[in-house]
Specification:
Helix content: 40-55%
Shape: globular
Number of domains: 2
Oligomer: single chain
Number of strands: 16
CATH class of the largest domain: Alpha Beta
Structural class: alpha/beta
Largest sheet: 7 strands, parallel
C-alpha cells in the first residue's frame, strides 16, 4: 500500500509529532509512505532523516484565527489554494498513492485532490469540531475551537464528510464533537504512540521542596495561570513547592504570567524554562505533572508525564479527562478552578506513597496502551478499511 500524508505545517507540535510516529510505524511495516508539506521546516527535515520522500506544495488553510478573518486574508487563502490545486493533482497522477491522509481539519487541498483523482481519502482530526465556550450560537456557525471556517462551519463539515472514506479522531472527546457531522460507521478513534526517550531519575536536589511541571505553549487556552494561582494558595499554607513552566511564549502571555506570579508573591517559586527539545528530563526531575488546559483535544503531555512515571493532575475536560482514571493514574480537578487544583496538589504533597504508586500505575498503563506497534497496527487497519 502507498500512502500520502498531508500536513498543515512543517513545525513540530502535537499533530506533526503524531504524523512522524505514524510514518515511522507504517514505514517499519514496509509500506510506501510519502508526505506533502506546505513549506520547509523541522518536520520536513525529520522526515527526510527517516528516508521519507517529502513534497513541498504551497497550499494553505481554509480556517482562520480571529485576527486573520478579514476579506483580504480570506481571498488570499482561496487564491493560494487555487494555485496549489494543479500541483496537488499532478503529484497524485504521478505517484498514485492508494490512500491520502490529511493530518488535520484545517486544510482541504489533499481531500479535494484525492476526490479529483478518485483516490480514497482519510481525515485524521486533532482539533475539536466544536467546543463549549463563550461564543454565541451565531459564532458557532463558523467557529471551531479558535478557528473560523472560510466556508462556514456547517458547510465545511458537510464537505469533510463527503470527501472522506474514514474520519479518525485523536480522542473520544474529539469523536463526540464530530459525531453530528460524521456517521458512526465512518468515524474511528485512534490514540497516538506518544514515543519518548526514557530518562533516568536525577538525584533530588531539595527533599523538602516538591516540583510541579506544566508543559505546553504559554497561551491563554493552556491555563498556566491556574497553576500559578494554585501555587500561591498553597504557599500561604506553608507548602514548599516550585513550578516549572515549559513551552514557547505565544502573544506575550509569558509577560502576563510573570506579572501574575509577582502580584501573588510567588515569582521566586516559578521557573520559565522556555522551549526545550525534549521535556523528558524535566518530567523525570519533577514530582507532579499538571495539565490545566480546558480544551485539550488529546493531551499528549499527559501521556509523556505518565511514561516518566509521574502522577498527573489534569483538568476534567476534553481529551485529558479520558486519559486520567481519577485516583489511579492521576487526579482530576474542575477545569478553570485553581482552588480545586490546589486541593488536589495538597493531597499528593502530603502523601509520598500515593505519589509513587500513582506514578507507577500511570507508567504501566501508558506504556501498555501507547506505543508504536499498537498505533501502527490500528492505523493500518483503518487505512485498509478506507481502501
Amino acid at each position: 500500500m502507498k500512502i500520502l500524508f498531508v500536513s498543515h505545517s512543517s513545525e513540530l507540535f502535537g499533530a506533526e509529532r503524531s504524523l512522524l510516529e505514524a510514518v515511522a510505524a507504517l514505514n517499519e511495516k514496509g509500506l510506501g509512505v510519502e508526505v506533502a508539506v506546505p513549506s520547509e521546516g523541522e518536520l520536513a527535515t525529520k522526515l527526510r532523516s527517516l528516508g521519507i520522500t517529502v513534497h513541498q506544495i504551497p497550499y494553505t488553510w481554509w480556517v482562520a484565527s480571529p485576527e486573520w478573518r478579514g476579506t483580504y486574508y480570506h481571498l488570499r487563502r482561496k487564491l493560494q489554494n487555487l494555485i496549489a490545486g494543479p500541483k496537488f493533482n499532478r503529484l497524485l497522477r504521478e505517484h498514485r498513492p492508494d490512500v491520502v491522509v490529511t493530518n488535520t481539519l484545517t486544510i482541504p487541498s489533499g481531500a479535494l485532490a484525492a476526490r479529483r483523482a478518485k483516490i480514497p481519502h482519510v481525515w485524521y482530526v486533532h482539533e475539536f469540531a466544536r467546543e463549549d465556550s463563550d461564543t454565541t450560537e451565531a459564532d458557532h456557525q463558523k467557529h471551531s475551537g479558535n478557528f473560523y471556517f472560510d466556508l462556514g462551519r456547517r458547510r465545511s463539515f458537510a464537505l469533510m464528510n463527503k470527501l472522506s472514506a474514514r474520519v479518525i479522531a485523536n480522542s473520544k472527546a474529539v469523536a463526540l464533537s464530530l459525531s453530528e457531522h460524521v456517521p458512526g460507521e465512518k468515524l474511528r478513534v485512534l490514540y497516538y504512540a506518544v514515543e519518548v526517550i526514557p530518562t533516568p531519575l536525577p538525584p533530588k536536589q531539595n527533599n523538602e521542596q516538591l516540583v510541579l511541571i506544566c508543559v505546553g505553549r504559554l497561551e491563554t487556552n493552556k491555563r498556566q495561570e491556574d497553576a500559578i494561582r494554585a501555587l500561591a494558595s498553597l504557599k500561604i499554607k506553608g507548602l514548599q513547592l516550585r513550578l516549572v513552566l515549559i513551552g514557547p511564549d505565544v502573544l506575550s502571555y509569558e509577560k502576563k504570567l510573570r506579572e501574575l506570579a509577582s502580584s501573588l508573591g510567588v515569582i521566586e517559586n516559578v521557573e520559565f524554562a522556555g522551549s526545550v527539545p525534549d521535556a523528558q528530563p524535566y518530567f523525570a526531575a519533577a514530582d507532579i505533572a499538571l495539565v490545566c488546559a480546558r480544551n485539550e483535544a488529546f493531551g499528549r503531555v499527559t501521556i509523556e508525564a505518565m511514561k516518566a512515571g509521574k502522577p498527573v493532575i489534569g483538568a476534567d475536560h476534553g481529551g485529558t479527562s479520558e486519559l486520567i482514571s481519577d485516583g489511579l493514574n492521576g487526579l482530576k480537578f474542575a477545569a478553570g478552578d485553581s482552588e480545586d487544583l490546589a486541593r488536589k496538589i495538597e493531597i499528593l504533597y502530603h502523601d509520598e506513597n500515593m505519589r509513587r504508586e500513582m506514578g507507577e500505575r500511570a507508567q504501566d498503563w501508558a506504556l501498555t496502551n501507547f506505543n508504536r506497534e499498537k498505533f501502527g497496527r490500528d492505523l493500518l487497519q483503518i487505512l485498509e478499511e478506507a481502501v
